[in-house]
Amino acid sequence: MAAVMRPVIYGITLLSLSAVAQADGYADYGKPEQCGTYSAAEYTREGWFAGGEGGSMALTDAQSVRGLNALLFAGVITEEGANESAGRVMAARGPLLGATGAMAEEVLVIITPQGIRLLQRCP
Fold first, then answer.
1. What is the pLDDT of residue 71?
2. Which long-range contacts (CB under 8 A, 24 or more apart) does 68-72 make?
3. What whole-number distance in Å separates Cα of residue 102 and Cα of residue 59?
4. Phi, psi of 35 (to 5 degrees)
5. First vs last Cα of the chain: how many Å apart?
6. Residue 109: phi, psi to the nearest 5?
7. Does the global pTM surpass 0.85?
8. What is the pLDDT of residues 14-71, one digit of tens each?
9. What gap in Å lies between CA 87 and CA 29, rounded to an integer?
10. Which pairs count as long-range contacts for 87-95, CB under 8 Å and 24+ apart, including other chains?
């Protein structure tokens, strides 16, 4: 019985680990040339890397924002062994609309105490 159960449990573990490890790459809106370079940003529900010299931030305590496709996190700077609070971080996804209609199907907006980043997903 244990030999039959082991492959099933092993398969579930692999699926859950691969979902956590995958980070999406992003570039500043209108700058797709950043994709695949040192300037590219990365975002997951567990962390945010601003790209370049921006440093890494762990995102914890995720909370939904009522009425928005957004999450509010507690940010913790984790670059070079640091463990310092970075304040609240909000990540929102949705279409980018302009005066003449849709400008982009989906963008990611990251709002931190340091500012706002408008990002587009890298291909």
1. 95
2. 68/92, 69/93, 69/94, 71/45
3. 30
4. -60, 135
5. 45
6. -110, 125
7. no
8. 333 333 446 789 999 999 999 999 999 999 999 999 998 878 899 999 999 998 899 9
9. 24
10. 87/112, 87/113, 88/112, 88/113, 89/48, 89/57, 89/59, 90/65, 91/43, 91/48, 91/59, 92/65, 92/68, 93/69, 94/69
Residue type, 81: G
**What ranges make up the beta strands (E) of the chain?**
24-28, 41-43, 47-49, 56-64, 70-77, 84-98, 101-112, 115-121
Amino acid at 92: A
Q: How many residues does the chain have?
A: 123
Comparing CA positions, the residue from 55, 31, 34, 59 lying closest to residue 44 is 59
23-28: Cβ within 8 A, 24+ apart: 23/47, 23/49, 24/121, 24/122, 25/121, 25/122, 26/108, 26/119, 26/120, 26/121, 26/122, 27/119, 27/120, 27/122, 28/117, 28/118, 28/119, 28/120
* Tokens encoding 78: 């984790």
